[in-house]
Amino acid sequence: MRTLIKNGRIITATDNYVADVLIENETVIAIGFQLEVTADKIIDATGKLLMPGGIDPHVHLDMPFMGTYSSDNYETGTRAALYGGTTTVIDFILQKQGNSLQSALEEWKGRSDNNCVGDYSFHMAVTDFNDNTKNEIKHFIEEEGITSFKTFMAYKGALMVDDRQMIGLMQEVKKYGGLINVHATNGDMIDYLIAKHKAEGKMAPLYHYLSQPEITEAEASGRFADMASYTGCPGYIVHLTCEGALNAVRNATRRNQKLFVETCIQYLILDASLYENNFEGAKWVMSPPLREKKDQETLWAGLNQGLVQVVATDHCPFMWEQKLMGKDDFSKIPNGHPAIENRMELLFSEGVNKGKITLNKYVEVTSTNAAKIFGMFPKKGTIAIGSDADIVIFDPEEKHTLSAASHHMNVDYSGYEGWEVKGKVKTVLLRGKVAIDNNQCLVDKGYGQFIKRNKVSQTI
Ligand code: URP
Ligand code: ZN
Ligand code: ZN
């Protein structure tokens, strides 16, 4: 099967030119100006941008968390991702404390196998690093293709590891060419502040925000960077939100260590004033919380300075009914918000259209850098001969409005209700197949493939 995409403007992390793209089966086999070739299917992309399929390396699908499950499963979540131009996601497996990493993998496979519409991979969250866990790391990197290990410096009592475990894990992961990603906030300080607010009868969502001040993130980010530098292990800070934390990274990277930073779309465009509307603020109860306008400015600058390499979502949706679990106590509101479908269009509209980032930077931070950092490049993350034909055909001019009434995520509200965006995903190809066209999904669950990833030491 050969597909020819004609006359699109190809945007990669480094290029911007008009050309034709020839795809055979799942792979790009030629790129050129007015290619004289035959094809089974021809797509006219005149006036449109052709960009590599988005990669969202931070999503939580069908995840057991805070007494419930995130409301998008592997089918609805990866389908919504495709509608929004994201062709590959990386989800998180959570080790249960006391159990093995392998048993967690089996549990997650039970929910995800044959259920994905788009491509996916896993990070392994290590919540209990001990001699048994230590012996499993090599197997995960070399056999399972799971080369990144998540740690939580918060969520004390459930997911949090201490610094002793962190150092031990870093040493093991470095040995085999993997990477540690981290939720970097100071879990003890946060625990103290939650208990203090509750003792004072302060139960509204606003106190979720006030229990996680900037310093809790700045301190943990710096501490993580120091441990990563000491062990020589590559590190990746997920969902970084604020000036203090980015300054800790800025300082650390003077040592030339491999330390990468992800922010999420919500931290670039939403702010903490949303917590002022009583329980409505629960829609944006996430950890870390939304921050201040000055932090948004820092994050946009961080993208352009190359200090922030990835814009993800931390997609972790809950139905309103689930959010109500915390109506009398902010600490019981399931943490997370939906964005898997909105990331690419929102970042284009708010970032490229408003002149905050270039088109090349947009591709870098929505796709290419994640592919490199997580060992998938050049299979994913670019439009090049030999790469998977994961291509978004994008109309940079079309305006539309985001709403829960029209989105495809399995959640009954939108964090962006009524937002006007300029720029729309029109057609999405995943491994050569037209997956989305004209607001319709043309592939079924089971089409999405598990992507075994390479050692990150090969791509960063
Ligand atoms: O609020 C969030 N971020 N929920 C998902 C779990 C995590 O910390 O990433
Ligand atoms: Zn987190
Ligand atoms: Zn997360």
What does this structure look like?
- The chain is of the alpha/beta class.
- The radius of gyration is 21 Å and the shape is globular.
- Helix content is 30%, strand content 24%.
- The chain folds into two domains: 2-51 and 384-398 and 407-441, Urease, subunit C, domain 1 (Roll); 53-373, TIM Barrel, CATH 3.20.20.140.
- Helix 8 packs parallel to helix 9 (243-252).
- Strands 1, 2, 3, 4, 5, 16, 17, 18 and 19 form a nine-stranded mixed sheet that branches. Strands 6-9-10-11-12-13-14-15 form an eight-stranded parallel sheet.
- Bound molecules: N-(aminocarbonyl)-beta-alanine (URP) and zinc ion (ZN) (2 copies).
- The site of one zinc ion has 4 residues, from loops.
Query: What is the CATH class name of the largest domain?
Result: Alpha Beta
Task: Please compute the radius of gyration using only Cα atoms.
Answer: 21 Å
Shape: globular
Number of strands: 19
What number is the mean pLDDT?
A: 98
**Helical segment count:** 14
Give the terminus-to-terminus CA distance: 34 Å
Which small molecules are bound? Answer: N-(aminocarbonyl)-beta-alanine, zinc ion
Per CATH, the superfamily of the largest domain is Metal-dependent hydrolases
Contiguous uncertain segments of 5+ residues: none
Total number of distinct structural domains: 2
CATH topology of the largest domain: TIM Barrel
Q: Structural class per helix/strand content?
A: alpha/beta
- What portion of residues belong to β-strands? 15-25%
Largest sheet: 9 strands, mixed
Q: Which CATH architecture of the largest domain would you pick?
A: Alpha-Beta Barrel
- Tell me the helix content: 25-40%
The oligomeric state is single chain
